[in-house]
Amino acid sequence: MENMWYRLNNEKLEIKDCDICIFGVPYDEAASFEWGASLAPVVLRKMSSWMPEVLETGESLIGLKIKDLGDVMVSKNPVTTQKRTYKLMKKVLPHAVPIIIGGDHSISIGTINAFCDHYKKSVGLIYIDTHADLCDRWHGEKYSHGNVMRRVLENKHLKPENVVIFGVGSFETEEMEYIKKHRIKFYNDHHVHKQGLENIAKKIIKQFKNIKNIYLSFDIDAIDPAFAPATGLPDAGGISSREAIELIKMFRAINIKALDLTEIAPNLDVTTITPFLGCKLIGEYFALVKAVKYGEKSLKFKYASDTAKNH
Q: Contact, 278 vs 22, CB < 8 A?
């Protein structure tokens, strides 16, 4: 579909010529409460064709070279799916910024590990989620959506001091003990409410300003279910959709080189609120990539009248 992804998808591009490669991982076998996140890639593709290539700020996405690579072939086994996802990530990373659409959050174990193994040095992770995902086992499983952070922190290239968890609404006792032991920086929903989103974002930017290779992982359940109800394990009190959009805008100041969006379960929606919000966030991802790669000026909208004057 040529109209996918803000009408910018170009199926004819080779990976080596892309700015961004998008792929889906339609997997939700590792979810623990409600299912449906496996439907998100196909639904977001369809809805993204309704999104214009100029953002609310008047910033233009035109000129970005984007290719949708389709979906990873998933297995009921989470480790098998993560290995296949890892392999595709390794193929994309030398050439383009990967944007991955889940799927439950367990798919990020493969993508984050591939990112760390590719860059090796100066690797950072911004993890946005209402859950810390730090349990060694979640409902008896080691590779579920409830222990993503625990598994990726086993990667030798990812140091705890180069990680932040943002938007947490609740913790398991085991997770708090792990955070204290490894001195992991986190900002819960109470912090955001009391200190304000902009102040927290500035602290994160300061933490990551000297890190060259940053992965942004965004679980939609970090957004309050009033704004994003279609997710498998919602938790009240999260950030608003406006705050989520502004947060991504502010992260243009740091070196984000891979992004994912997980846990949107379209079947759980009351209308199409959550998938359309997901598409809006993807548009901000595109703008972030364009700003980081080509500079903020590249987002300036070019009027036809201005173009004519230059010829």
A: no
Q: Which amino acid is residue 39, in one-letter code?
A: L
**Using the 8-state DSSP alphabet, how is residue 221 labeled?**
G
Using CA atoms, how far residue 115 sits from 89, 118, 122, 241, in Å, is 7, 5, 11, 27
**213 and 122 Cβ atoms separated by less than 8 Å:** yes
- The pTM for the full model equals 0.93
- Residue in 103, 129, 26, 20 with CA at minimum distance from that of residue 65: 20
Nearest to 104 by CA among 279, 236, 221: 221
CB 98 within 8 A of CB 188: no
How buried is residue 202: exposed, middle or buried, by Cβ count under 10 Å (0-12/13-18/19+)? middle
pLDDT in tens, the chain (311 residues): 668 999 999 999 999 999 999 999 999 876 656 778 999 999 999 999 999 999 999 999 999 999 999 999 999 888 999 999 999 999 999 999 999 999 898 999 999 999 999 999 999 999 999 988 898 876 667 777 678 989 999 999 999 999 999 999 988 788 889 999 999 999 999 999 999 999 999 999 999 999 999 999 999 999 999 999 988 787 899 999 999 999 999 999 999 999 999 999 999 998 899 999 999 999 999 999 999 998 888 888 776 555 445 54
Q: Where along the chain do its domains lie?
A: 20-295
At the top level of CATH, the class of 20-295 is: alpha beta
User: Distances from the Cα of 132 to the Cαs of 58, 125, 221, 280, in angstroms?
Assistant: 35, 13, 12, 24
CA distance 222 to 263: 10
Q: Which residues pair with 292 in a beta bridge?
A: none
> What is the 8-class DSSP label of residue 155?
S
Burial of 151 (0-12, 13-18, 19+ CB in 10 A): buried
- The answer to whether the beta carbons of residues 132 and 171 sit under 8 Å apart is yes
At position 71, the amino acid (one-letter code) is D
